[in-house]
Amino acid sequence: QLSGKWFLVSMASRCSYLAEHSHQLEATTMTVTVLDGQSLAISTFRKLDRMCWEIRQHYLPAQAPGRFLLKGEGDCSKVDVVVGEADASSFVILYYQKGRSISVKLYGRSSLVSDAVMDKFEQRVRAVGLSEDVTYHFPTYGGWHTVLRETRV
């Protein structure tokens, strides 16, 4: 269901790097490939310093459906990934938890999602104790997406 291309629409996180560099956010896409029927190969593309970068990750299946483990180097760098809610044709909300820190990401099949989907995302963000002041909206390659999001109040 999650296979294919996704656009990062919004993210809620207390990450200090994100807060300090939020004015430099660039359009980000993710391509998901299901491997062996369970694990996911994730390829994330984003622009940085006028260059396109690809980040490849492998999400391993965890103990329950919709749960994955992203392993880094060393024990303390593992990230639990949970599919919070998804409609494979339009959006997916993912939770990323490392230790006591949690982030919530909203991906869409297009770079714009409906108000109903955005409302679901905002409810999920509040449910984990995050707020609007740590929620960031990502621009599209055209740049007009940011303007639309700022006018949606």
TrEMBL record:
Xref: InterPro entries: C8G, Calycin, Lipocln_cytosolic_FA-bd_dom
Molecular functions per Gene Ontology: complement binding
Domain Lipocalin/cytosolic fatty-acid binding: 3-136
GO cellular component, one term: membrane attack complex
Signal sequence bounds: none
SUPFAM superfamilies: Lipocalins
Entry-linked Gene3D superfamilies: 2.40.128.20
Coiled coil, from the record: none
Biological process terms in GO annotation: complement activation
PANTHER family, per database record: COMPLEMENT COMPONENT C8 GAMMA CHAIN
UniProt-recorded name of the protein: CO8G protein
